[in-house]
Amino acid sequence: MHSNHLLLEEPIRMASILEPSKPSFFPAMTKIVGTLGPKSRSVEIISGCLKAGMSVARFDFSLGDTEFHQETLENLRTAVKNTKKLCAVMLDTGGPELQVVNKTEHPISLQADTLVILTPDQEKEATSNLLPINFSGLSKAVKKGDTIFIGQYLFTGNETTSVWLEVSEVNGDDVVCLIKNSATLSGSLYTLHVSQIHIDLPTLTDKDKEVIRTWGARNNIDFLSLSITRHAEDIRHAREFISKLGGLHQTQIFAKIENVEGLTHFDEILKEADGIIISRGNLGIDLPPEKVFLFQKAAVYKCNMAGKPAVVTRVVDSMTDNLRPTRAEATDVANAVLDGSDAILLGAETLRGLYPVETISIVGKISAEAEKVFNHDLYYKNTVKYVGEPMTHLESIASSAVRAAIKVKASVIICFTSSGRAARLIAKYRPTMPVLSVVIPRLQTNQLCWTFTGAFEARQSLIVRGLFPMLADPRHPAESTNAANESVLKVALDHGKASGVIKPHDRVVVFQKVGDASVVKIIELED
């Protein structure tokens, strides 16, 4: 399996580049988050997305109401049953997002070198020289010379519908701006981004709380994507809020870094969050273009070393309207994988794009090719060096399991886990082979009823690079007799064989707990 692994530092035979890629049960180690929306909410399309490699479905509450998203979620559940592909659910909050209020939804033409007034008076009608917005504090936040960007929600950069404004003067509550380029605002939702300015609105808005309290709690969401996270306190506040909602105490919170404020407080945010989404759309406006790549590489590295998932957005914007990505986009996907990203998040490409299934498929193929030239050896050494000594007991065993698997050229690592922590630690060291995370359910009681845990932990590994979960029979606890462990191991091996990951005479590394001890063993399979 690993003869395919090359290093970019080594000479590559050019003809080998043209050899077709071998099909695999797992399209790529790197995961794909797909945003479900108007163009991707039927059972048929969602089934296609799952087969193409989507492992997390994102529900974006900046668009659509709870009924719309509930219907989409029911279709997702049907598609999961039909395809037998596990999929996690991510709720993406609207956050403190500034929007242009265009009640008539008529197109608005803006001419370069003319003036337009931004007003908080939402009763006024949007025209070419007056744009009502949903925020009354803009006049207090900006000054002459500041830059304001208005674009279609999830703008791709290909539209002729984005406009740059420069603040000319502040007049009471109104902000007078000079239009820098001609554009036509058409469509229902236009967002407004003020470059490098603090907007005095809560990160978790009242609307967000209502959505989480109702839709989120009812559907036991796996991930909460906290839009426009600016401080560690934002994460603490969100965690305190969802911890009171019963079933959501296990929900993981991902900080969505979208502006300079989030960048400035990145280290503190990373400590509090369960993962990071590098939202390059808004970051691309807030940062000088030549600095975006630098933040991406630095942020992904910090996430890798902390063992927390790093998710990169906005990679194949042009596929919103086209069947193939541009050369730059294809290279961008590969570079995100080579940087160490756990997952690629697709927004407009699947939400309103014409080719959601094809987009997921091509991103998966590019990721798989990039993984073949990822320098695992160097990454492993750097991670061990960064962690330093003494390592924790679990981290020491996890890193040893990866080293053993690479040395014996194992085809897969099988990890028995209850919380998912051991499997995530193994994945942190980026083994060259898939990690089959066998999640052992645990029995819990609230003194009124008994419930099994495990489904959350299994789905939450669907955003971690290289982790592929399966839920074990709850009658076999994680720390049990050898006979029970052998029984679960047989099921895991059979699953690996059925999916084509494990073949006769392969070596398999197994990580499990026996009593108080963590054990790594190497198995050589017979025919």
From TrEMBL:
InterPro entries: Pyr_Knase, Pyrv/PenolPyrv_kinase-like_dom, Pyrv_kinase-like_dom_sf, Pyrv_Knase-like_insert_dom_sf, Pyrv_Knase_brl, Pyrv_Knase_C, Pyrv_Knase_C_sf, Pyrv_Knase_insert_dom_sf. One of its GO terms (molecular function) is pyruvate kinase activity. Pfam families: PK, PK_C. SUPFAM superfamilies: Phosphoenolpyruvate/pyruvate domain (SSF51621), PK beta-barrel domain-like (SSF50800), PK C-terminal domain-like (SSF52935). Residues 30-360 form the Pyruvate kinase barrel domain. Its cofactor is K(+). Its EC number is 2.7.1.40. It comes from the Eukaryota. Keywords: ATP-binding, Glycolysis, Kinase, Magnesium, Metal-binding, Nucleotide-binding, Pyruvate, Transferase. It catalyses: pyruvate + ATP = phosphoenolpyruvate + ADP + H(+). Pathway: Carbohydrate degradation; glycolysis; pyruvate from D-glyceraldehyde 3-phosphate: step 5/5. Residues 395-515 form the Pyruvate kinase C-terminal domain. The keyword Metal-binding applies. The keyword Nucleotide-binding applies. NCBIfam families: pyruv_kin. Belongs to the pyruvate kinase family. This is Pyruvate kinase. The lineage of its organism: Eukaryota, Viridiplantae, Streptophyta, Embryophyta, Tracheophyta. The gene is LOC115986623.
